[in-house]
Design goal:
The protein is an alpha/beta fold. It has a domain of about 160 residues. It is about 35% helix and about 20% strand. The strands form 3 sheets. A 5-stranded mixed beta sheet has the order 5-4-1-6-9. A two-stranded antiparallel sheet has the order 2-3. A hairpin with a 5-residue loop joins strand 4 and strand 5.
Length: about 240
């Protein structure tokens, strides 16, 4: 049978991340990397560096504005357009202007949550470094900037020295995210002196192009197999 509710609550791991209020900033991602990844690893006594993969996906989200007392700000606004509004409730006028911007469509309530997590190879656990509401209006340029933001924050905060270097970035089936991944992680061809050249050069069918810090582009294989099956079963494929 299933465990009791109180058993689940007593044994579940609770992780609190900094909410995205307004646009995604390097301060938000840096805070999450420090508090969600670096500090827990240090407290657990984990000192062995491991390769790390960043993974992204979307999850369903109720379209609603939320109040965050710690920041005295409004969450739930899409990260694509949140930069055109002032999301903090300093005065009555600021609250009224924000409501007008939402009503007029200058900024939207998120339909989904864009989530990016860090996963250390040899571990089952994942560490969320970003959760930002999305209106699904982002283009590949927005995603390129976001990917660079996360990677830069990881290295600027010395997470590569305390947790491990970034090895790959894995996307879901979203075409926009994949296009951004191709732009960033298929830039430079590995040279024979690279530490990973000897590993990758012998793998048939795998290109040797990488991005920042020799990161490679990866995909959720569920989506790859789904697309392969679709084409095989399509009447036009024969």
């Amino acid at each position: 049978g299933l465990p009791a509710v109180h058993t689940v609550r007593n044994n579940m791991l609770s992780i609190k991340i900094t909410p995205t209020i307004g646009s995604i900033t390097s301060e938000t991602t840096a805070q999450n990397i420090r508090s969600v990844v670096i500090e827990p690893c240090a407290q657990s006594g984990q000192t062995t560096l491991r390769g790390v993969s960043l993974l992204t996906d979307e999850t369903a989200l109720e379209e609603a504005a939320t109040y965050h007392p710690a920041q005295n700000g409004v969450g739930g606004l899409c990260w694509k357009h949140a930069g055109v509004v002032y999301p903090y409730l300093d005065t009555y006028d600021s609250a009224e202007q924000l409501a007008q911007k939402i009503s007029s469509g200058n900024v939207h309530l998120g339909k989904e949550m864009s989530v990016i997590v860090a996963h250390c190879f040899s571990e089952d656990q994942t560490y969320p470094v970003l959760a930002a509401p999305s209106c699904k209006g982002e283009d590949h340029i927005d995603w390129e900037a976001l990917m660079y933001n996360i990677i830069k924050s990881w290295y600027d905060n010395d997470a590569h020295k305390k947790v491990g270097p970034l090895w790959s970035f894995a996307t879901d089936g979203d075409a926009t995210c994949r296009k951004a991944g191709h732009k960033i992680f298929l830039q430079v061809k590995l040279i024979p002196s690279s530490p990973i050249y000897g590993i990758l050069s012998g793998l048939a069918g795998l290109n040797l192009y990488t991005g920042p810090h020799d990161m490679t582009l990866d995909f959720d294989y569920k989506h790859i197999l789904k697309h392969k099956l679709f084409f095989e079963l399509s009447p036009k494929s024969g």
